[in-house]
Amino acid sequence: xxKDIRSYGYTELQKELEHLGEKAFRARQVYEWLHVKLSDSFxxxxxxxxxxxxxxxGEYEIFPVSxxxxxxxxxDGTNKFLFRLWDGNMVESVLMRYKHGNSVCISxxxxxxxxxxxxxxxxxxxxxxxxxxxxxxxxxxxxxITGERVSNVVVMGxxxxxxxxxxxxxxxxxxxxxxxxxxxQRNVTVSxxxxxxxxLRLAEEGFQITLALSLHGSTQEKRRKLMPVANKYDLEEVxxxxxxxxEKTGRRVTFEYSLVHGVNDREEDAxxxxxxxxxxxxxxxxxxxxxxxxxxxxxxxxxxALNFKNKLEKSGINVTIRRExxxxxDGACGQLRRRYAEEEKIVDEI
Length: 350
Ligand code: SAH
Fold this sequence. Notes:
Layout: E1 3-4, H1 10-19, H2 24-35, H3 50-59, E2 60-61, E3 65-72, E4 79-85, E5 90-98, E6 101-105, E7 109-111, E8 126-129, H4 132-146, E9 152-155, H5 165-176, E10 188-192, H6 196-203, E11 210-214, H7 220-226, H8 235-249, E12 253-259, H9 267-277, E13 282-288, H10 302-314, E14 319-321, H11 335-349
Bound molecules: S-adenosyl-L-homocysteine (SAH).
């Protein structure tokens, strides 16, 4: 298979081109075509000689992230995209429009093997890791399709980014490189279910990205019931890794807590959660659970969610309820991709 040219960092690409006997400035031109002009073919790179373009085409591939479907919310302008990768795997991404700019939520894996009880993305298991270029490609395609600049990126789509560590870290380097889109690291958030060794590695990378930890349970026992990963890394360890991340990076950690009616939204849950978070300089984001067809979790009423939030606020916790975006377009995380998988199954059966 040809080499994945869009996954090389700037200096790595320089070395590649030197090996081909080219001058260093050529790397700058190629990098600009790939990461600024967002070109998807060597043929477009018209300031390179035909010979070099042919040489590149022989050695490298610009792997496609091809748009298949776009849904636009009538409620808030949120866009959902479904992309097809070179091997037929599908991933979804979301563009959210805020006053402070455009934010894109990307997928880091095709499928997921973490098995969280309420999540649609994990139902078919993990298909494969995405490469750095496939994570970037989602953002590049969205910029190309909409003609709008993306200023914020959240890695909260399908997949567990810290289960695809090297590609994820390379993606962050490329995304924030001054020769490319140059998105500010402070405008990037990565969400993890709590893979402790890789949270600790990430703390050492020297990045300024925000870490979001999916907590969802206020005790080890409660968390374990919703998130199988808690069998491997217990709550104490995960919280200690969050503390390390804050100490090393100075970045306040965000805790995510999906509210499930009658499961983790009771009085005692709020009390226990407050006790965990009070000593920490952090932010709590409550996500009323998005019902997933294959599961029978129920979202709390608006009133219950507000009560839960108020209890935490009274305990001095910095807390918000996540604003629901695009609720009219295929609901929760991973559902567009799942629906597609089902439609394909139906087609197969006919
Ligand atoms: N693997 C990463 C990213 C997952 S998606 C992680 O676990 O953090 C981002 C957030 O959405 C996570 O907190 C995840 O637990 C949550 N989530 C997934 N499915 C959900 C659903 N149906 N309703 C509410 N939140 C959900």
